[in-house]
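A sample follows:
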Amino acid sequence: MITPMKKITLLCLKDDQEMVLNALYELGVLHVTHMKQPVCRELKKEKEYYGRLQRAIGMIPLNTEDRPSGDAAQSTLEKVEKLVQRRKEQEEVCEKLNYEKQRVQPYGNFDPALVASLTKEGINIRLFRSPSHQPVIAPEDTFLFIVNKDKNFVYFVIAGDGDFRCDYEEFHVTGKSLAEVEAALINAEEELKSITREFERLGGEWHVMNEALLMTKEKIHLLEVKAGMGSAEDIVYLQGFCPADKVAEILKAPALQGCGSVIADPSAEDDVPTLIRNPKWVEPVRTIFDMINILPGYREKDISGVFLIFISVFSALLIGDAGYGALFLVITIVARRIFSKAPPAPFFLLGILSVCTIVWGILTGNYFGASNIPASLKMLHIEWLNNEKNIMHLCFMIGAIHLTVAHAWNAMRIMNSPRAIAQIGWIGMTWLMYITARTMILDTAFPAWGYYLLFASLGCVVLFTTSPKKIKKDWPDLMMFPLNVISNFVDVISYIRLFAVGSASLAVAMSFNEMALGKGISSVFAGFIAALILFLGHGLNVALMALGILVHGVRLNTLEFSGHVGVQWKGIPYTPFSRKQRR
């Protein structure tokens, strides 16, 4: 559930500012909102230093075997920055030398000094190139020497007394020969390798640098809060939000006893942070919220419990195979043992999804898409679920139930308002869309009672969406009613994706099984190829299933269901002013 918040304003003397901030910092329960834009010279300086540390850490390879040298982070930072500058200079040198090498190479290893000396003696030697498809003709009283050809150009030298004119592209001789350029390039590349080795020797300093980075982050946070405080003569003040059950900790803190405080409920205009506290059985779903970075707003509903229940059902239908479910469960158990110090929530989530998939796979009789399964396993499956129309019918029903939960939830929240009847009307519309989808897609008869449901639902929605006194203000909601009905129908239909993706996964598995085993295994080589096909094919299918859960299973909760329940995921994370932020 979303934790209730209190809005707190603290006032203190300017002389006590540091003491108050340090006390709040240690308590770590107040989500501070700035009273003004936090700007000061020291804050700017620390942010620049933080950026330098971040860039430096990105350059240092993490090496757990090397021990720290004992150097301070500042010393290591300066070394890294010097190495970065040297590497940049050497890379520029290499780039220029490579360009010069490519330019000189077609003319061979001649001595530029010799060309210069001959020019002084009156013998003009010039180097040119011309497209290979054009004839090369030397000017009068000159000599032509072709030195190289490739598919694009002809490279040649023209020598003569005095100056002469040519329309060919001329190569301008520099002061280095090809051998000198290559030698300089080797030296520059060796220097780059030396710089890389120096970076590697700094691997033991990674943790020292990371610690400095975290300390700088803490200091920046502290300076931001300080610079963002309001002031009036000798009084400074700050404002923030605190969980209602933590307010007493602030009021009882000895260092804050001399502060003035104002405690109030958040107003409608406040951007209140969201803190979700859920029972342990719901906590695994936080993994998905964190992964896709979503959070309900403070005044929205926390759908974590419903989300976990239905994502489990959706995952089972999307994968639809007990063999894959068992594979996922084994991988989860092994991974948990390997990463025993990691947070448990992701592993619990994967375990729940795996078990639900196994149960659904057993009920449908699917095991890695195999066509021949033992009779003992066949006895466990339900024949009704082997009919595609029945599965589609079940998907529509799950969709209707899912959306019914959303509108029932809305109705319960406004139970004392006539608008609750409008939500009941939307429940009726949802089931009307369900029977309409069955009629249109599954070719079932539209029941006679469906017309009564239509008129009753329409009446509830139209008459109770708003009160007559608010009709002038809320008339756009009534005008959107036809579009909302269409949207409701589309949302119910969209649950067919559970059948479509699940069927596709089964078809892929069966296809690869047929490719690998359809003609039997006649030799060791054929067995190896079959095993390779099965491994790659089922591996691809597993990857597609994981993607399907993220794309389809999560979507049905975060878009279709959330749209009906009124969750827009506009939450601001609760980030208390705290040393605990350090990671």
